[in-house]
Amino acid sequence: MTLLTEKRAPRAHKETHKIRGKVHLREHLMGWLFVGPFGVVFLAFLIAPLLYALYLSLFQKKLIGGTSFVLFDNYVKAFTDPSFLSGAWFVIRFSLVAIPLQIVIALAMALILDAVTSLFARFSRLIIFLPYAIPTVIGAVMWGFLYSKGFGPLTDIFGLFGADAPDFLSSNLIFYGLLNVVTWQWVGYYMIILYAALQGVDPTLYEAARMDGAGRWQIALRIKIPLIAPALILILVFSLIGTLQFFNEPQILRYLAAGTIGSDFTPNMYAYQQAFSLANFNYGSAISFALGGIVFICVYAFLFFTRKRRSFL
Amino acid sequence: MKRRRILATVAMLAAGSGLVACSSDEGGSDASNCTNTITKQNLPVVTMWGWYPNTQLVVDNFNKLHDDVQVCWTNVGQGGDEYDKFQTAISAGTGAPDVIMVEADRIPTFQIQGALVDIKQYGYDAVKANYGEGAWKDVSVGDAVYGVPVDGGPMGMIYRKDIFDKYKITPPKTWAEYEQAAQKVKDAGGPLFGDLGANVPAVLMALQIQKGASPFTFDPAQPKSIGVKLNDQASKDVLDYWGGLAKKGLVGTQDQFVPEYISGVINGKYATYISAAWAPGYLTGAGVGKGQDTGKFAVAPLPQWDPANPVQVNWGGSAFSVTKQAKKPELAAKVAYGLYADKESLTDGWTNQIIFPLNLTALNDPAFIDLKVAFFNGQQANKEVYVPAANAYKGVAYAPFGQYYLDAMTKQISEVIKGSVTGSQAADRLQEDVAKYAKEQGFTVQ
């Protein structure tokens, strides 16, 4: 028996290998076919433009003298350019305030909605999520009007108490004006992600915790939050990338407050101005890549410090 | 199984070809995508971008009058929006229209990039007499002509008659009187006297020129060198003056051309508006002078620094230029010369206060000069203020990097408003900033 099988085995093995190889090849081809459309779009609309931008960023174009190859001069210029540096510093500061604020609010809401099961909770969930469904441009325009001292509601509300309404579009308060818009827009979205993660937690865990004598607070802090940590980290990374690339809201509010929000307010806006207003695509590309570098460093640092907690990426 | 796979492949290919189809669209320069309807078929078509409120009528008039060429018009946005698109088309080498409406101060910016055509050879002599010398100067670089003037922006001081009457003041003739009047109104608990908007750097530039500044000197024979003088005494004085008014709370610091400002104008928050001849039309369009503020506006000549030697300045004004991407420049030039130059269009333009015409057939038309402007409650604004201002305007040399200069100036005005720098300091910083940019762009700065 043993001999027989031993003799037969290699042949059988070979045959199955052959068949498996054929299947493999077919599966392989099918796989490529399915990945193909994505791959084409990915290459054409992400990789190719990126490479082209990188190529552009190595040149310098002057009104007098034309284009010349300068290697990394544009990057040296960017990292010594006060406009770029102040913009980068702004988005970093903004991230440090906006992201924790949004996450805390979103987490609190998700926990409350998870704990309360009533019709009201379902309604609240929709209402909190609604701002995310409004396009950023429209949201920014809307807040621009709400902030207006001439016909916004703030003047009336503060007038009731005999106070002067703050001007959220002035250079002193624009930080908070934008903070409010961004928080309003994104909290609902983060809340939904966290809420969905909470729904995925096995309820028997809560039961076990209750039997061990844990209260609601303890369940929330010691069981729910640790279990949805991967989702938390996911939205932190999303919001970090999004906030460092801050563009839409300030660009729209700029139409109402060009004095407060300069053309170099954030690095992305500065890149836009350089490329599309001043026709300096080369320097604009360099700024974009420099910003990409900053985003990469920030995200990498963040993931490094949270490496024990994450279960994705 | 097999059929399904074939279907899937076909679907994928179809999706792929869809993408390819998208990329062959040429966008702005496409003649099949006109805002206006071309009724005469089988004629050569010239594409045009512009944003006059009555462009539709102007284009229709042109098309009606011409049997050899038709205009296809697209409105791609006002001012900066259009320039950004044009700039992108220049960089891309494709996508620009044949004829484009540009403000005179932008012509050098596009000209230096070789994006505009010198139209002197295409019929300039025939229309030369239709415009004043100053008008031609603003659209020329050296001897070459890069645009056909359409409208100008001679400046004046629009004011609220009701506020002036209430506080018993007469229109100030000098800037010193302007400040005194502002103080008087403020002391009596009245509204702000004017506004310093960070987003209208062109106004401050004009006011600096009024005091004797000449920001840019540019000799087309030596295109590599440019004179940048943004911190001479006149420039500093004007910035200090306005910074001072803002600091003392005599004028507002609101951005202009935004709903906030317009609502302020309607509600009588500002006693004066330092602006140009096209402002009544713009304000009317924005809803000013139609409700409670009907007939409350009047206009007076721009206050002067030295009333013995008055200087008139200009804000805005536009022209039609022919772009290098035009396939038939001669035909495009014909359109540029002819658009908004017929009597019907011009009359519509000035009766509705859309443009302050530079075409002499309109400018010298008694009906235009004597017009009793409804916005100013029947005041003969053209005769009293704007036509004399236009006639006294000498023209200006604009920067070939106008966009950068204006952006940088906005930044500095904003700093002055914040109070972090004085007007003089802002002028010094602006000089440094713009001179550095000019050098980076390869100019020799004098």
UniProtKB/TrEMBL annotation, chain A:
Keywords: Cell membrane, Membrane, Transmembrane, Transmembrane helix, Transport. Pfam families: BPD_transp_1 (PF00528). Its main location: membrane. It is found in: Cell membrane. PROSITE patterns: ABC_TM1 (PS50928). The chain crosses the membrane at residues 29-55, 90-113, 125-146, 173-198, 219-241, 286-305. The keyword Cell membrane applies. Residues 88-304 form the ABC transmembrane type-1 domain. It is a multi-pass membrane protein. InterPro entries: ABC_transporter_permease, MetI-like, MetI-like_sf. It comes from the Bacteria. Belongs to the binding-protein-dependent transport system permease family. This is Sugar ABC transporter permease.
UniProtKB/TrEMBL annotation, chain B:
Keywords: Cell membrane, Lipoprotein, Membrane, Palmitate, Signal. It comes from the Bacteria. The keyword rRNA-binding does not apply. Gene3D superfamilies: Periplasmic binding protein-like II. It holds the Pfam family SBP_bac_1. Coiled coil: none annotated. InterPro entries: Bact_solute-bd_prot1, SBP. The keyword Lipoprotein applies. Residues 1-23 form the signal peptide. This is Extracellular solute-binding protein. It comes from Micromonospora parastrephiae.
